[in-house]
Amino acid sequence: MALTVLPPLSLYIHVPWCIKKCPYCDFNSHEIKSEINESLFIDALLTDFQYQLPRIWGRPIRSIFIGGGTPSVLAPESFDRLISGIRSLITLIPGAEITLEANPGTFETDKFLGFKEAGINRLSLGIQSLNNRLLKVIGRIHDREQALFAISQARAIFDNLNCDLMYGLPNQTHQEALDDLIALLRFQPDHISFYQLTIEPNTYFYKFPPVLPEQDHIAALENDIYSLLKEHHFNHYEVSAYAQQGKCSQHNLNYWMFGDYVGIGPGAHGKISFPDKVIRTAKIKHPTNYLNLIDQQEDIEETHVVDPESIPFEFMMNALRLNEGFALSLFEERTGLSIDSIQSTLSLAEEKQFIRIKENHLIPTELGRHFLNDLISLFLND
Ligand SMILES: C[S@@+](CC[C@H](N)C(=O)[O-])C[C@H]1O[C@@H](n2cnc3c(N)ncnc32)[C@H](O)[C@@H]1O
Ligand code: SF4
Question: What three-state secondary structure class fits 125?
Fold first, then answer.
């Protein structure tokens, strides 16, 4: 491979704490057992970021995503220091999207005003459901009232608001799922991430599986969800993401377009391209180990060079999630490979009617989107 242009670069920051662990969640999140030393944690994140600088000299950051866990458990002052610290070390492009993930159970109006003051310009609220029975079943720390209050306040504070919802919850009826969406739409969020609940290994739900709606019911529900969101002018631009015009998540789009990202914080992953190779980084997962070992970069980070043979597959695993597809030139630009190197697989995918190629632009068909894993796995051997 030989990249002539390096991809856009973003920054992911992981905050690994939550008030309570949800039974479906396999994110690197740990229940808060004693007071967090926020100042020490922000110092560690800035040290971690400094370690990355030699790999990204001269490249500006286009977006920042502070995810978790529940970053909103930390104080606005901590984010103020973090964002100022990053700005002093690297150029952030003007108007860079800076997202913070938040749980409605941590909502206080002054605190969220403080997040905005600190430079957060996009809030992502984890709503999941607005049904009290289901919120209990999925172990959330907030009820419907608290969620509605948080959405209405967040709507007034932030120009760019995402809400996460989940469907296919234990014993959830078709109407209950639609009712959640209808109630949320009244607040006119800019973006909705609507995820089907998946049962992940290493979770409470994996050990004690709840009864989930049948797949036939899920398919019918998804049709209604798409129609309702379309009526409300949402563009379904990625498997689980819906946006008003101009409000797609810039940070996530960069992942899906096989861009680069630096990952800092416990368990954070990164991908950084060089003219002749791509490296992946992963940070030590446990917050205590991370904080104890932060003074030695080699102790908190594992890195490996991506096997050049797996790069087409890795590109497709991301880019085929985009409903509008991508220009074939993006594949060449981001992987440094010629489109000819995957031509036979593209022809096979076309034959199977999983994709259409028109004017050098690849679009997954409805069939391809339905069998996305089969489509992606065609590229495993390229
Ligand atoms: C890090 S959490 C968001 C912020 C915050 N921690 C919260 O939950 O309120 C990321 C999102 O992933 C989704 N998610 C987590 N586990 C999931 C699962 N097993 N199936 C589907 N979606 C899941 C949820 O919608 C959640 O809001
Ligand atoms: S879903 Fe959010 S609040 Fe629940 S455990 Fe996972 S990261 Fe924490």
Answer: strand
